[in-house]
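Dear support,

I submitted the protein below through the web form. The confirmation email said the job was done, but the results page showed an empty box. After a refresh the structure appeared. I'm attaching both so you can tell me whether what I see now is the final result or a partial one.
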Amino acid sequence: MQSVAYTGVPLLATAATWFLIFGLCSLILCCCCCCRRQKKSYGYSRIAYALSLILLILFSITAITGSGFLYTAQGKFQVSTTNILEYLLNQADTTVEKLKDVLVNLVAAKEVGVGQNFLPPDIQSNIDILGNMTNISAMIPKIKTQQSSKQIQNVLLPVRQVLNIIAASMLLLALLGFMFSVFGLQCFVYILMIIGWILVTGTFILCGISLVLHNIVADTCVSMDQWVENPTAHSALSEVLPCMDNATANDILSISKHVTFLMVGIVNQFITNVANNDVPPNAGPFYYNQSGPLVPILCNPLNFDNTDRRCTAGEMDLSNATQVWGNYVCNVLPSGMCTSMGRLTPTSYGQMQAAVNVSYTLYHYGPFLVDLVDCNFVRETFSDISEDHCPGLRRYSYRIYVGLVMVSAAVMLSMIFWLVYARERRHRVYAKKFTPKIYSQGV
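What the results page shows now:
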């Protein structure tokens, strides 16, 4: 960061040099004008007059172009920065919402049971512990990103206002200076030169700051590329959108997979032991007059060790199981006995449906949880910013710098030629006025 800050030193030195030299020259010129008592010489050069006018027009056009360049560049830079911040906040919000969905479904899994079967007490206890740990952790990316966004916006808004004022002021100064010089209003030219002296000094200072800003933007984009390659490295970027604690993320992933495995097992256990079992009427709660085609069992997408498992023939996928099972629901009496063919009561079907919804949601968020463990979601975020937003951000920050340099240099040189042209114009008018008299006297 220090090396980047030094890149603006030459322009700051230029501002200081301009301020001192122009101020000193102006002071010496004033002293000379006040102390000289002899008759003024009104030498006139057509070349100097024409050349000063041409250069004055050229530098005035350059100042106008630079002001327009500066105004458009800072507007686009502001838009590009806002888009990046909105993207970061959206990524943080998405992460938080997905984590909340996982936690909500884990908590819901404690209450879901099919028949008389529920999750084991130790799993329910682990869910409670994990929920208490993760409620705070889930909000960390969002909170830190919002803080960073507010800090950046608090800096950018005043900077944009200052740049707009500078662009308008320098444009007005260049136009007024040109008009006053052309019309020979030398007194007003002197006043504008004092104002321009201060404005040019301030603009050169802003040039140095804008160059530092451009280099910071470029270095930040490079840092994003480096962080994508090595996400474990600690840097300022890791505070903007931090990775979730690896141990916590692993715990969420492990428990989510285990709950998915157990919930599917509970559903299949009910189907096998109760729904598809033709038990006698004296079997108690296991008998409700179930009959008809057997209910297909649910495909468990995981093995006991939480590794992925392929479904076998006849197993129902989590995504469409509840629709298929709807064909196996019977009509029931208030006592719960089936009065029509079917192996599932509306109550047991509702329990199975709730279990499947929880299992499907937890399994669906598996890739997201893996990304949390590997920090892929942060890596993808920074990679997208680097590819989609960094080129424009670098381009617009550089244009701001170029616009400021154009305006500063053009107005600085214009101020010199304001004096030159005003002097040559006054001498030209004097020469035209007195030359005929001289010729007539000579004749």
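Response: this is the final, complete result; the empty box was a page-load delay. Residues 437-443 have pLDDT under 50 and may be disordered.
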